[in-house]
Design a protein that fits this description.
Largest sheet: 7 strands, mixed
Shape: globular
Strand order of the largest sheet: 5-4-3-6-7-9-8
Strand content: 15-25%
Oligomer: single chain
Structural class: alpha/beta
Length: about 300
């Protein structure tokens, strides 16, 4: 078989098995291409069309068998492909990943890379906090995008921080990224590194009803990193109450809330917030200034 034939056959198998995508790919063909190319030790950007295409390159029987084994594992385990390959890409940057963290896919990386957040930044943006850092992908992308900054990556999960350490070391950013264990903003070591000029946070925000119906691929990820309580806003309520104390004047919080905008606006009806355009729409990532957090009326219970 050729590479393209392997990919097309793999895509059909994935489609027939009704696997769920969303951890780096959005369709069966792209997922099959990822698994086939990875199995063959080829770059994921290997051309599959045009004059320099490798699509018709023949594949040895032993290599085809290895591809089939990986595809079967994807179907039978329902694990995201990134857990099987131990690699994920975000905004063109490679990251190690395993079952200790969610697969990196935050849209905050997108607004960093395309400059969607630059309006709120300045030369004084030097201290950056990546809260709920997971595998450290946002901390790494922020460090690569803003070379004059120092980054703190914080997470409650020591398992996640161990994965983040792999990625910080992989990108040789040990001198600029410090990783800390912290339950939200509570750790004294974290507080000592503030005030921050920019806080990035992709928190657990999935509401309880959605958690109960997640596909198996998402259930394979750590619940701690996904579940946000009844309305998805448990962590966010605490964060918005505590964040101003660790934010410098003129600083901003970039927060991802996924498909929970309705719950967010219900929880914080008087909060002035700016929604950023992303490839998933203008209702997934929100920017909130320190002044907005300090100035607007707070919902019942916030800050208690």
């Amino acid at each position: 078989m050729t590479i393209l034939e392997l990919i097309e056959a793999g895509a059909q198998r994935l489609a027939d098995a009704k696997v769920v995508f969303g951890h780096g790919t959005t369709n069966a063909f792209d997922e099959a291409a990822w698994l086939v190319l990875w199995s063959l030790g080829l770059p994921l950007d290997t051309p599959l069309d045009g004059p320099d295409s490798d699509a018709n390159r023949p594949v040895a029987t032993t290599d085809s068998a290895r591809v089939a084994t990986l595809l079967e594992a994807r179907i039978t385990t329902r694990q995201p492909a990134a857990y099987l390959t131990h690699e994920a890409w975000l905004q063109g940057v490679p990251f190690y990943v395993d079952e200790r963290t969610i697969v990196p896919r935050s849209l905050i990386a997108e607004v960093i890379a395309d400059g969607g957040i630059d309006y709120w930044l300045s030369e004084s943006t030097q201290r950056v906090l990546d809260l709920c850092t997971g595998n450290g992908s946002l901390a790494v992308i922020a460090a690569l995008s803003y070379p004059d900054t120092v980054i703190t990556g914080a997470d409650l999960s020591t398992d996640a921080l161990a994965v983040a350490r792999i990625n910080v070391d992989r990108h040789q950013l040990q001198d600029r990224i410090t990783l800390l264990e912290s339950d939200g903003l509570r750790a004294p070591e974290l507080q000592a590194r503030g005030p921050f000029d920019l806080i990035l946070c992709n928190p657990p925000y999935v509401n309880a009803d959605s958690m109960a119906t997640l596909p198996a691929e998402y259930q394979a990820e750590p619940v701690l990193a996904l579940s946000g309580g009844t309305d998805g806003m448990d962590f966010v309520r605490t964060l918005l109450a505590q964040a101003p104390a660790l934010m410098a004047p003129g600083s901003v919080l970039a927060l991802e809330i996924g498909n929970e905008r309705n719950f967010f606006e219900a929880a914080f009806p008087n909060l002035e917030a700016v929604w950023l355009e992303t490839s998933a729409g203008a209702d997934q990532v929100v920017v909130i200034t320190r002044e907005a957090l300090l100035g607007g009326p707070k919902p019942d219970g916030l800050g208690k």
